[in-house]
Specification:
The complex is a heterodimer of chains A (140) and B (490).
Chain A: E1 3-6, E2 12-18, H1 21-36, E3 46-54, H2 57-74, E4 77-89, E5 92-103, H3 106-109, E6 117-118, E7 124-128, E8 131-139
Antiparallel strand pairs in A: 1-2, 2-8, 3-5, 4-5, 6-8, 7-8
Chain B: E1 11-15, E2 18-21, E3 31-34, H1 37-47, H2 55-62, E4 72-79, E5 86-93, E6 98-100, E7 111-120, H3 121-124, H4 128-138, H5 153-162, H6 164-169, H7 175-179, H8 197-203, E8 216-225, H9 228-233, E9 240-247, H10 250-270, E10 282-284, H11 288-323, E11 331-337, E12 339-348, E13 351-360, E14 362-364, E15 383-386, E16 394-399, H12 401-407, E17 410-412, H13 421-427, H14 430-439, E18 443-446, H15 463-472, E19 476-489
Parallel strand pairs in B: 3-4, 18-19
Antiparallel strand pairs in B: 1-2, 2-3, 4-5, 5-13, 6-10, 7-9, 7-11, 8-9, 8-19, 12-13, 14-17, 15-16, 16-19
Helix pairs in contact in B: 4-11, 5-11, 8-10, 10-11
The chains are: A alpha+beta (140), B alpha+beta (490).
Chain lengths: 140, 490
């Protein structure tokens, strides 16, 4: 699984990776939902589309993850599959993403904890030897 | 991480439970840490690992922010957070200081309310399973739970502006609930226009929900009176049944925090504020961005007070029915937040000053004589509520005059985590914890069954030691120890 949970005594620290920024961001999102629900049991039947802009990859990662937390409160939706494309345009960095999931079913999804927000602690997006890493700490 | 290899090289022991972090490497003031030997060992281990998270490094960052007026403080339950350490207190000048999102966090005004009942242990012990099951059903909790209050946009704005009094006016509470809530359940300066529409939308269904993670509802008994005179003032007696409610501002606070981080990052650049780490984003308190954050955070605080008030009503109704007692005999002892920034008057170097006091995982603990302490408690100071960890004790304490001078009238809020959630999951199993608790006569009803291991009592510091350290430091006085009979976990 291309993400790991790191040790932080109060919060949820995550390192995710992939062969592109988009892949790393998709894994970062899966890591977040895998904390809150049994993501392998969340059927990818409802899609939500995102177009986000930021000045930095770090800002874009926070914007992406924070946006994904909203539908659980507005529509009771949780996600398990993510497609992300990040590119540089004349307007800055642009993310186009799709999240697929379904309404929360506590019996089947066994929710555990809730991500309250994405902090700036240890926030990092970087490339090393052809692998993109996305690291962040979520308040849980 | 920056700085020297180990920030701990700059620590010096200056008392039994008191350490000083000498100013270095950009610090504007010293750091002061109240902690016992076990906590200090943990802080040292963290600080010596340059790749890990260190509460002392975070305290150093707090002490480096513009306008801090006195030592940055860490209380005995200190552990790494984001921005401020948890258990961290920082007071800033109103004109030259900054407001720091990481000094409050996402769960704005998360806190604890303690209710006393006319019941004694013997009244509830035989029926505790039924009583706990009734409460479990009565209080919405866990991911995706929805509150009974359905609010329009106009109504949610009133919750944000008015706080707990609005909920009481709707009929969900009694006047004395407000008298014994910090700030009477309403913080001034709340401006709903400073809160995004998204934050409000996320909150529509969440007023009156407990949440999840470490949020809980506990039926407890007063196990031991440690300061009988104050206990009498607080209406507490041995073997009395009490209820603790631990929750915060829910999705509204979360979204205010998220929105504010982005705005503060821009403000830092705009005003050329040099911050020691990106997690310390802040804005001058007097700037439009700083004022907007303060107006929004006041809304979050009011929402949390309103939320605990709404849950109080659910608990009162359920418990009164389960135990055949008059609902109004279930009364609020106190309601206190432990994630906030407040404008308060304190003496610094003998001069009274109005300051912005950030408390992250720390409560107010105002001592005797303050006008903002309810008259019935004014002789000893208001109660502070120290949350336990499923199966361990909670404490009622109060502030001191010394604490007003040493710690801006602040108190500990809990045991403080010792293990990461990851480590806890490796070390504990939920079914093992359930059987351990059952052996101690404690019922655990959890909406989040997988999360039980993360919140295992063994993942936290020993709350008794943390309380002893706060008492030894002279900042808080233990009044009563509470032991859980039933834990309802979000």
């Amino acid at each position: 699984m291309p993400f790991v949970y790191l040790d932080h005594s109060a919060d949820l620290a995550i390192r995710a990776w992939g062969s592109s920024v988009g892949e790393a961001f998709a894994e970062a999102a899966l890591a977040m939902f895998s904390k809150m629900v049994r993501a392998d049991r969340v059927r990818p039947v409802i899609a939500r589309e995102y177009a986000l802009q930021a000045d930095s990859l770090r800002g874009l990662l926070v914007a992406w993850l924070a946006a994904l937390l909203v539908p659980k409160d507005l529509e009771n939706l949780v996600f398990s599959r993510f497609d992300v494309d990040v590119r540089t345009t004349e307007l800055g960095l642009l993310l186009r993403g799709r999240a697929l999931g379904e309404p929360l079913d506590p019996e089947r999804h066994e929710p555990s904890g809730e991500v309250k927000g994405i902090t700036y602690l240890g926030l990092d997006v970087r490339e090393e030897a052809g692998v993109w890493y996305a690291e962040y700490v979520a308040d849980v | 991480m920056g700085g020297s290899l180990s920030v701990f090289d700059h620590m010096e022991r200056v008392g039994d439970v008191e350490w000083t972090l000498a100013p270095h490497d950009g610090m504007l003031v010293a750091g002061r840490i109240y902690a016992d030997a076990a906590s200090i060992d943990q802080l040292r281990r963290e600080a010596d690992d340059p790749k890990g998270w260190s509460a002392v490094r975070q305290l150093k960052n707090v002490a480096s922010l513009p306008g801090i007026v006195a030592p940055a403080l860490a209380l005995p339950d200190v552990h790494p957070g984001y921005g401020f350490p948890i258990g961290g207190v920082g007071a800033f000048d109103l004109d030259d200081g900054v407001v720091v999102v990481g000094g409050v966090g996402f769960d704005i005004n998360c806190g604890v309310r303690l209710l006393r009942t006319p019941l004694r242990r013997g009244d509830v012990a035989p029926d505790i399973d039924r009583i706990a099951a009734d409460l479990y059903r009565a209080v919405p909790a866990g991911l995706g739970s929805k509150g009974a209050l359905r609010l329009s946009t106009k109504e949610i704005d009133r919750v944000l502006r008015e706080g707990a009094p609005y909920v009481v006016r709707l009929g969900d509470g009694i006047e004395s609930d407000l008298e014994y809530t910090e700030e009477n359940g309403h913080v001034d300066g709340a401006e709903p226009d400073a809160v995004s529409a998204l934050a409000k939308q996320r909150q529509f269904q969440q007023v009156g929900t407990l949440g999840s993670g470490n949020h809980y509802l506990e039926v407890q008994i007063v196990d031991e009176l440690l300061e009988p005179k104050a206990a009498r003032a607080f209406g507490l007696a041995a073997a009395q049944v009490v209820v603790s409610i631990h929750t915060g501002s829910r999705a509204l606070g979360h979204q205010i925090g998220q929105d504010s981080l982005r705005e503060m990052a821009s403000a830092c650049e705009k005003y050329g504020i040099r911050i020691p780490d990106q997690e310390m984003v802040c804005a001058p308190a007097r700037s439009p961005e700083g004022q907007r954050y303060l107006a929004a955070v006041a809304c979050g605080a009011n929402c949390a007070f309103a939320n605990r008030q709404a849950i109080t009503h659910l608990v009162r109704t359920s418990l009164a029915r389960s135990c055949s007692i008059d609902p109004e005999t279930i009364q609020t002892v106190y309601d206190i937040g432990h994630n906030h920034v407040r404008i308060e008057e304190h003496e610094v170097d003998g001069v009274a000053r109005r300051l912005l006091v950030h408390r992250k995982g720390a409560t107010r603990a105002f001592g005797p004589g303050r006008s903002d302490v309810p008259p019935a408690y004014r002789e000893c100071g208001h109660p502070t509520l120290v949350g336990g960890t499923m199966g361990t004790s909670s404490y009622v304490m109060h502030g001191t005059s010394a604490g007003m001078e040493l710690a801006f009238g602040s108190g500990i809020h809990g045991a403080g985590r010792a293990l990461s959630r990851n480590q806890a999951l490796k070390r504990f199993r939920s079914d093992g914890i359930l059987s351990d608790l059952a052996a101690k006569g404690i019922r655990l009803l959890a909406h989040d069954k997988r999360g039980i291991a993360e919140e295992a009592p063994g993942a936290y510091k020993d709350v008794d030691s943390v309380v002893r350290a706060a008492a030894a430091a002279g900042i808080n006085v233990p009044v009563a120890r509470l032991r859980p009979l039933a834990v309802i976990k979000g």
